[in-house]
Amino acid sequence: MANPISSVAEAAILPYAHYGPVTAVKFTGDYLLCGYGPILKVFQGSSGVEVASHQVFHRNKIHHIGVSPSDNVIIVGARSYVVSTLTQLMQPKLTVAEKLANEWIICGEFVGENQVALLNSHNTVMTINTNTYKVESVRHCLEKSILYSGSIAFVENKPVVAAGTVMDGVIVWDLGSGAIIHRLQDHEGSIFGVQISGDGTQIVSCSDDRSVKLYDYKSGTLKASGWGHGSRIWGLRFCQDFIVSAGEDCSVRLWQYSEGNDELQAVHVMEHVHSGKHIWAVDAVDHSATIATGGADGKVRFHHINEVMATEFNTTEISMEALAEDDSIKEYALAAQGMVAVTVKGHMLAVKHLQLIPIVDSDDWVSKLNNFALVESLEPLSVAVVCSRSGELAVIDTVEMEVVKTIDNLLIPGDKVVNMVAYSDGNTHLVVLVSPNPHSDLVVVQFTSATNYKVYKLQKPSSPFTVSAVAYINNHLVVGGRQVSLAVYSLNETAPKEVYRRVSAGDTITSISAITPELALITVRDGTYMVGSVSADGQLSIIHQNKLARGFIEGGYWDHELNHLILYGFKSSYFYIWDETTHCELMAHTCGGVHRKWRVRKESGRKQWQFVYTNKSTVYQRQFTQENQPGLVHQGTHGREIRDICWQNDVVVTASEDATVKFSTYDSQTHQLTEHWTMNNHVSGLQRCKFIGKDLVASSAANEEFIVWQLSRQGPVITVKEVARLPPSADIPDLRIMDFATVEYGDGQLLVATVYSDSAIKVWRFDVATTKFDLVCSGVYTTCCILQVEFIRLGDAHKLHLMIGATDGHVAVWDINHLPKDLGAMVVKQQIHQNGIKAWHLIPHGSGYWLVTGGDDNALAVSRLQLQQTQLQLESASFIADAASSTITGIAGLQGHEVVVTSVDQIVRRWQLDGTGHLRCASARYTTVADTGCCCSGGSGTVMVAGAGVSVFNCI
After folding, report:
1. Does Cytoplasm show up as a keyword for this record (predicted)?
2. Is 474 left (phi over 0), alpha (psi -120 to 50) or beta?
3. What secondary structure letter does DSSP report for 507?
4. 3-class state of residue 23 by DSSP
5. Any residues with CB less than 8 A from the CB of 688 and at least 6 apart, and which?
6. How far is Cα of residue 21 from the mean position of the Cα atoms in its chain?
7. Which residues partner with 152 through β-bridges?
8. DSSP letter string over 128-175?
9. Which of 48, 383, 486, 618 is the most exposed place for a label (fewest CB within 10 A)?
């Protein structure tokens, strides 16, 4: 039975924006149509700009979109369908009406000028006149199998149905006659996708047996099978000579068939196309060789086949014909004009157009560089520097590819160079020579041109300190080394200003680069990356730290045009370039792994990459253009359900079952959520996240994980760092911190209450300056799980109390004004709900509070909490037993005495509280956010509802 409070003054809850799973994608002309639940978005194909958005269905989700050559559009989902045109969909307001069928619709296609065919889940096709919406015919093939998938295509100008059944393989039948053409029963599971090629010669299908199978249409014989997906395959498309498949493992695979080969060849694999699990939607278009994918993470991405295939075939080998047979390239550096290389025997060479050109070949330099040489590029200065074992430098003009300066006497006699690191930006260009002698200086050679330079000698930090990277930040030289150590120098002083040891976990700092004049990006080989702030007096502080779970990080930079963080490194045998801001892989290339000589460069001002590496003494060059990558059309959220959401000013924090915490910003003018960071510090599914101060956020999860995050903002860069972590109670913690609460307690201190799944309660004193926790109070409620906790101050003396709500439906309160070591006896214990209290909200009222609670029993209750003389009282004011059709999961306060309530039935309800404690539902409307689990308010009428996605509403 439908809840009577499911649709009330819906116009008073105005939808602003939605980010959620993409359920359908379809190209038509230069546009891409995307289904986000019941919402259809239209994107311009070449630019990816959203041009229109309409809620086409009241509640049902869009599962399929079909288009005709004349740009008529059929949109279907569950039992609903809408027939429209591309022109109508581009208008600000959609006027066509939602229609209903009597069966679940699998797909719909136009089969005539004014006819649309709807294939339903019982393998029956209804043909409907789009002018009158009358059913003109109902056809079937005499086998009403249950379908999971299907498609309708034209073969020799006749409509043909390819039905993907649950238990009986693929049934191909003629829509005109109902005759069965083929039964394809080679899969071992349910059919999740089946398509007929545009020329009507082939059929392709996929199944939960994780295989892709290609059939000859004429004979129905199996031509080839493809294996490789790690889990279920949800969709298939033909595109030019390729078969495109996408599925639960978030990978997209391009397959090709070779005549006579019974195995489909996976000619390209795109991993990590979306976050979390599931690519629910895929489409492809032949003329531009473009693939579109939509995932459970809410992202829509373009993939251009010509580009992704070029990444497989544009690796070229550098010719070695100019070298002696017993010689080979040993070291090299990349420049805009080519590559500067040194051979094993000491010859300096330029590489242009894959050909070797001698730079200088004097016996003197050949002997100096024989068996040892180091090469670095200062590209903005058009300079490359070659260093010998004894520290002599050859400065090469990379435009003319000739030595224009030599520098010697840099080291004390007898010293040797083991490493040379370089840094070059628009203003500062330098190399640092490193000797293994712990008593030798670091030699810094700073260039202003190819022939003008200045030498600085700096004391090494006390051992151990092995230099691996360098940068010039805020007029200070920042030197990174092994064991994640950093030293900061002023070039006017020989001793380091500061030395920082073990800045984070990990081994070697692989790169340091400037983000802004004061901020540096620091990468660590084990996957950690940090943002450090260097003050004017040389003090360095880490203001952001995260870890990338993709193997080794070798470097990175901040893309100022996009405001994105780009990282690169190695995982297993391949090299990758990764956009950490959007979580999109820009490039991956199999090269054999990290243990080899390699260089990478990005052309200044262009989306052009050059990757050079050595494999078995052969040097390879790979060019990569980023013009249409990563092809992110629409940003998304988490790839799994969001368990909690909080919002302060323009910063929105979400905590998800995927064990990540995302930090985003919300633009109140455009209503756009922009993701900045996805933090991976938790290892288990999240439970709660809350702001606990102006720049502090806390999050809790299973395994007794409780983390405090520090937010900073410098210009366009928002940074986040874990500053504190609550110690667990056991070496192998198995409890979940279900909720937490904080209250200010003295200068610079917070009281933090944490409640656990075993009914334990702990109160901690947290010092914000030292980030230390001290346990001050603890106790146990009963044996049931505690779901809610809050600090409250009552009476004229503002006496501090602790209130909890549990799975037994009770609210309990303790007086903790004097912070007793043991919580002691409860001053209030009262049952409000039949079972778990899943959400609550406190509204100040006089010297007490109205307590609004929602439970597992679908009820909404209002209680009055007040201190009568010295006695705390909790009195029931009102109780609405059928406030929702299912569990109430979130309550957020609006202005005045109003709250917004979310529940698993996907209804957002706005309730008004009167002076007697009674509630009235002022408005209610459906949200497409499934698994609706939480909500938050920005303090005005704007509300965010989260679960499998995020929706933004304005309550007016």
Report:
1. yes
2. left
3. S
4. coil
5. 643, 644, 655, 698, 699, 700, 737, 738, 739, 740
6. 13
7. 161
8. EETTT--EEEEEE-S----EEEEEEEEETTEEEEEEEESSS-EEEEET
9. 618
Average pLDDT rounded to a whole number, residues 621-630? 67
What are the DSSP calls for 446-461, one per residue?
Answer: EESSSS-EEEEEEPPP
Backbone φ and ψ for 209, nearest 5 degrees, come out as -85, 5
CB atoms inside a 10 Å sphere around CB 735: 17
pLDDT at 652: 97
Inform me whether the pLDDT recorded for 235 exceeds 70.
Answer: yes
Return the SS3 of 86. helix
* Model confidence at 599: pLDDT above 50: yes
- pLDDT at residue 390, rounded to an integer: 94
C-alpha dihedral, 466 to 468 to 474 to 476, nearest 10°: 40
**CATH T-level assignment (fold) for domain 637-955:** Methylamine Dehydrogenase; Chain H (2.130.10)
654-694 pLDDT, tens per residue? Answer: 999 999 999 999 999 999 999 999 999 999 999 999 999 98
| CB-based burial label for 548 (10 Å; 0-12, 13-18, 19+) | buried
* Number of residues written out for the chain: 956
pLDDT tens for residues 692-720? 998 999 999 999 999 999 999 887 788 99
Domain segments of the chain: what residues?
A: 21-100, 313-460, 637-955
Q: What is the pLDDT of residue 847?
A: 84
User: CA–CA separation, 554 vs 558, rounded Å?
Assistant: 14
How many whole angstroms separate alpha carbon 316 and alpha carbon 338? 14
Q: What global pTM score does this model have?
A: 0.92
The candidate with the shortest Cα–Cα distance to 511, out of 427, 384, 613, 421, is 421
Find out whether 207 and 189 touch, Cβ atoms under 8 Å: yes
Give yes or no on whether 21-100 and 637-955 have one common fold: no
pLDDT at 454 over 70: yes
What are the backbone dihedrals phi and psi of residue 7, each rounded to the nearest 5 degrees, phi first? -145, 95
**Terminal alpha carbon distance of the chain:** 29
Whether 312 has a pLDDT exceeding 60, the answer reads no
Strand partners, 139: 125
HEC sequence for 714-757: ECCEEEEEEEEECCCCCCCCCCCEEEEEEEECCCCEEEEEEEEC
pLDDT of residue 635: 87
Token pair belonging to 216: 């000859």
Q: Which distant-in-sequence residues (6+ apart) come within 8 Å of 884 by Cβ? A: 3, 5, 854, 858, 860, 901, 903, 904, 905, 907, 909
What would you report as the CA-atom Rg of the chain, rounded to the nearest whole angstrom?
A: 32
Two tokens, residue 281: 């939607």
Of 742, 658, 764, 761, the closest CA to residue 696 belongs to 742
| Per-position b or e across 123-157, b if 16+ CB within 10 A of its CB | bbbbbbebeeeeeeeebbbeeebebbbbbbbebee
Is the CATH number 2.40.10.480 carried by domain 21-100?
yes
What are the tokens at 315? Answer: 């690796």
Burial of 258 (0-12, 13-18, 19+ CB in 10 A): exposed
CATH (residue range 313-460): 2.130.10.10
Report the relative pairing of strands 202-207 and 211-216 from DSSP bridges: antiparallel
Indicate if the alpha-carbon torsion angle 227, 229, 235, 238 is positive or negative: negative
The answer to whether residues 542 and 504 touch, using CB atoms and an 8 Å cutoff, is: yes
Residue-by-residue DSSP string for 270-282: E--SSSSS-EEEE
